[in-house]
Amino acid sequence: MTDVIANNCPLTVIEISDKGHFKSNTVHVAPGGYHLYVENKKHFSLSIDKKIHFSRPSIDVLFTSAAEVFKNHCIAILLSGANGDGAEGLLNIKKHGGLTIAQSPASAQVDIMPQTAIDKGAAAKVLSPKEISHLLLRINDEYSLL
User: Fold this and answer.
1) Class assignment of domain 2-144?
2) Mean pLDDT of 68-94
3) Burial class of 54 by CB neighbour count within 10 A (0 to 12, 13 to 18, 19+)
4) Which residues touch 36 (CB under 8 Å, ≥6 apart)?
5) What are the structural domain ranges in the chain?
6) How far apart, in whole angstroms, are the C-alpha atoms of residue 15 and residue 57?
7) What's 102's DSSP letter?
8) Is 30 exposed, middle or buried (0-12, 13-18, 19+ CB in 10 A)?
9) What dihedral do alpha carbons 76, 99, 128, 82 form, nearest 10°?
10) What local confidence, expressed as pLDDT, does residue 145 receive?
11) Which 8-state DSSP code applies to residue 10?
12) Which residue, among 37, 29, 28, 44, has the nearest Cα to 60 in the 3D structure?
């Protein structure tokens, strides 16, 4: 996954290691077989706890820990997927005041994951991948002006 993202992204892309540090202008990728937690505002941690929604890493684990650490400074995007993983975590981010986005089911290769989040009321915005890209660029531009 890291190579696929790196070949399609202008940012540095790294696979996270246990107790790894956040790095600016970097895409951090969870290694297969581990849950990824946001431990604090500087570090990640990895776990081999039981699978959630048949998944390890679980999006719910990542999103819930990110919500607790970053609260209203968190942006989460839930894309195409074949189970309900991510919907509860996205809802936690929304409850903490973060921005939550689900891919529009019509644009998803498999719509179960974003549709579950939408049905739970977890997505503040429902957008196509192109619309998500435009929104992130707009947010980046606004943040850069601060």
Assistant:
1) alpha beta
2) 95
3) exposed
4) 16, 30, 44, 45, 46, 57, 61, 62
5) 2-144
6) 13
7) E
8) buried
9) 40
10) 64
11) S
12) 37
Segment 80-95 mean pLDDT: 96
> Each residue of 26-53: pLDDT tens digit?
888 889 999 999 999 889 999 999 999 8
Q: Detail the DSSP E strand segments found in 7-66.
A: 12-15, 26-29, 35-38, 44-47
pLDDT of residue 144: 65
Instruction: Give the H/E segment covering residue 109.
Output: none
CA distance linking residue 79 with residue 1, whole number of Å = 15
How would residue 146 be classed by pLDDT, with cut points 50, 70 and 90? Answer: low
How many Å apart are CA 124 and CA 6, to the nearest integer?
29
